[in-house]
Amino acid sequence: MYQLIKPLLFQFAPENIHHIVTSMLKNGNLIPGVPFLQKSVFHLDDPRLEREVFGLKFKNPVGLGAGFDKNAALVDELSHFGFGFIEIGTVTPLPQPGNDQPRMFRLPMDEALINRMGFNNEGAEVAATRLKFLKRKGLMIGGNIGKNKITPNEDAVSDYIKAFDALFDVVDYFVVNVSSPNTPGLRALQEKGPLKEILNTLQQRNNKDGISRPILLKIAPDLTNEQLDDIIEIVTETRIAGVIATNTTISRDNLRSPENLKSETGGLSGKPLTKRSTEVIRYLSEKSNKAFPIIGVGGIHSAQDALDKLDAGASLVQIYTGFIYEGPILIKKINQAILKREMQKD
């Protein structure tokens, strides 16, 4: 069904159609019977799909990556597609409009997207208020946090603290985003010194009435092996819960799309990232001797792509661009493939 209407959807500018589709999704779920119909089509519930990772129990290992629902406005509606977890954000302490439009570009020849959104969001307090009244129904919620554009890097830790505090009571885990290429200077925070300061500060704050939240670090696919070694060291030293590998890439290698699209600045996601993100997962897993969990994301457009990331060492996977190109049935296909493996083990 989705593949039949995708050509029509792709006639619209990416950001415009995103707003149209999400509005239709929101309004459509107000119609009696629609949520039940969606669940009957897309859900695959089986205890063999359950995963316990960094102390949390996920009903299945397939999640939605950050960026699709920046403001926690669609968590309930998106859950009807069968996700095991949904990551909201990136959320900053203060609302901000993001970069000027156009800021998202579709590369259909490469089944990819380029975005330079710039952490456009309504702020941490708005997201927290929405999540406060959400009926979870076993769905795990991640909070992806970043700094405001106007905040200098030397003060970045204060922004991460503010977003962390605002979301603490309403999310199940946190993701520290220092790897987006679309906020000037942000990736400099991946360097050892500032990164350890941010993570150690959040860990020291990570206790409220005896409750702590798993903190994960989202890293770029453009890091060298030496930098990945530093990431392993930092994760070990700060004792955070794990890593999300990977964010979008600034590389434009081997793209088939026209030059005017390839030359757009921003982070590239989708199929061109499939191989590199899996390589990063494998390197981190093997070099650390599986010392921490990894959520694999980047170029998952098929069930086999997801299995490859799990085989490389990921405990969970997330989709985003593949969700746009393949449609919501991709979630069920991945879960079916994972369940088939589990059945073969029995």
From TrEMBL:
One of its GO terms (molecular function) is dihydroorotate dehydrogenase (quinone) activity. The gene is pyrD. FMN binds at residues 66-70, 90, 144, 177, 218, 246, 270, 299, 320-321. Binds 1 FMN per subunit. The keyword Ligase does not apply. Substrate binds at residues 70, 115-119, 177, 182, 247-248. It is found in: Cell membrane; Membrane. It is a peripheral membrane protein. Belongs to the dihydroorotate dehydrogenase family. Type 2 subfamily. The active site is at residue 180. This is Dihydroorotate dehydrogenase (quinone). Catalyzes the conversion of dihydroorotate to orotate with quinone as electron acceptor. It catalyses: (S)-dihydroorotate + a quinone = orotate + a quinol. Its cofactor is FMN. GO terms for cellular component: cytoplasm; plasma membrane. Monomer. GO terms for biological process: 'de novo' pyrimidine nucleobase biosynthetic process; 'de novo' UMP biosynthetic process.
